[in-house]
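Bug #2210: token dump truncated for mitogen-activated protein kinase kinase?
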Amino acid sequence: MELRDIASCCLFALYYLHNRRIIHRDIKPSNLFISETGVIKMGDFGFAAQLNHSCSVRSIRCGTSWYMAPEVYEGKTELKSDVWSLGITLIELAEGKNPFDECSLFDVMKRVCYGECPKLSSSRWSSAFADFVSKCLIRDTKERWSVKQLLDHPFVKDSANRIKSIGCSDYLLDMAKRVRRCNMPYSPVPPSVNLLAVSVIEEHLTTLVVKGNSDLMMMGSYVEVIRVCKGVCNDECVEKWDVASCPRLKSIEIDDECFENVKEVKLIGLHQLERVVIGRNCFTKQKNNAAYEYDLQLGGNDFDRLIRDYVIKTYKEEAEEEYGELTQRCIDRLLKKCEDAKIDLRALMDTDIVINDDTDWLYTLTRSHMNCLIGGKIDESIRLCDEAITKAGLTVNDINEIVLVGGSTRLCIVEEKLRNHFPKLEIKDSVKPEECIATGAARYAYALSTGKYFVTPSHP
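Reproduced locally. Full output below:
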């Protein structure tokens, strides 16, 4: 029912925009916000544009590749392009995963333009929901349903009439209340909450504070930090802890003497995890065990910050006098835009970064310029690898291959520099991050139990 009401609210927003010939051009879960008044609000109009008339098209390609319609890649964006993005968004909200997850930019474009259109399984979801999504994801824009047609679809018709009549959704009100119970700070003004990350606007991270077993049930895709209080979750019934339900998790902080009966912890799929702190005497009934702190940041954010800092510097020199000083919120959001630009430049030679959604000023970043900005950081990482090999009493001849794991290692300049520095070593890029983490965890466990290290731990 929540998905039905989310779809209805999105259609109301698009109906309002499209009646005014406005295309949003960047509909995705992270741009949908749940309000404490029980409705979904659409945000981030940085790419929005107004057409001369309802049949017009825009030749500029923009948006987020996973959600872009086929015609957008051809430079023919139109009102129904938002409908395609809504269909992809609903699949992601339903399945918890984008249908193009783990695809490269080129692969996404190929599948969207030439492959089978994404769809929901009617065996898992209602036939009405599956049909609704299929009407959104028709490649031919003449056949794809409009927002007006979708509002009459059986999947949302009753929901839309109910929300229109009473002004809110009871299901979304309940969802908002559940979010507010997740230890979020009190705000006198009802905040809007991001539907994907479920983090209060203007709050930096959404934190789940675990004070007992029941709090473990509150884990979800919105949680970015988990803090476990001292001496909790020690009941015999707590034997496993699976954190995979928190894909946006950045930090785990466990105080002393927790999880004494836990024999298995699953950290699969936590690609954004940067920091793990484990207090004394955790995950054991024995006493006097040491505490640990791990920095899991793999360096990709270092590239993003270098790009962001340069773009901000350029903005200050060229545009600040005309458009004004950047707000802290704009700077925070710019980091994600720089990450997206870095990803785009795996397949493209240049891409645009919109530095401030309230202005028309943008910066065009070329692949060669990005390589100049991040080249020094890659050289430093290679130097640290050399240092780790030496400290382990090894030479390059003892190394069989280089394994590239993670998004930033897919940049052409990374492989180029590695081939120049290690010309005799084979380079592999087919290993999944979780496989590498599992191998590293096994080796680290061996090192802790025997005192023998395969290689000195070092920032990669």
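Output looks complete on our side. The first strand starts at residue 22 and ends at 23. Marking as cannot-reproduce; reopen if the truncation happens again.
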